[in-house]
Amino acid sequence: MPLSTQAVVERKPLGAGQPTPATPGDGVQLRLVPCPALHLPIQLTSFVGRALELTAVIELLDSARLLTLTGPGGCGKTRLAFRAAEELAGSYADGVWCVELAGLEDAALLPQTVAHAFGAREQPGRSAVDAVAEHLQLKRMLLVLDNCEHLVAASARLAITLLRACPHLRILATSREALRIDGEQIFLVPPLALRPLPTHLRTAATERRSAGAGNWQTISESEAVELFVARASARVPTFRLTAENAPAVAQICQHLDGLPLAIELAAARINVLPVEQLATRLDHDLRLLVGGSRTTLRRHQTI
To answer: What pTM does this model have?
Structure first.
């Protein structure tokens, strides 16, 4: 697959006999250089927060050949992995590739799935794993294996085989549990950051407006609140964080422990329930957290 290109500006001194550059400014020349391939799913929603975690993941991948992002379902492992891979694309001459495993149920088909992603063909007498290893042997590449938990043993066997056969390969895996193989670095993805809700804001719904008027700007600095507002305004374009609704939004995010999937599912209900009612009902019934995008995985449509 041919690499894409980008324009690079070079400044070179003009010597005697050199033609005047066509671009404005003395000595400025443009040339096209190849960019590493980026084979990641295109994200249709914004990436919110995670500055500390993103920095940590990028730093860990500088030394670890296998880094596994772990944590409970819905904590944001996949989005963090994809974002880190995007940031690191320029560090790998042969690009960044992703193999999504969520829809794969048969562990025996894992090697063939990865081989298909790279276009590595099986041959008589050679397994799919060997085909992938041979294809990647000299590649300087980052491979993202997303959602390994239901295929954890097969994923571990594949990862150790590829890492041994491909000295310049690095693997970034996401899984609810670690692969538990030699050389694995584990990073536990935490919930989104929450700012503690002051005691005087934990009042009845009828008292929230007066209680929260002086604190809503502080509340808005929470990553969890930022995510709720971003997803709620996508559902209801007129939705804004205000002094009146900020305490209820903060209460929702704290009640959901900063879990990104839960916050997104709650925000998806904003076109049905006012945020104050949503906060009150979630105190008693998490069954409200269903729905979300019709195109997302079924397990991401409910808590």
So the answer is: 0.79
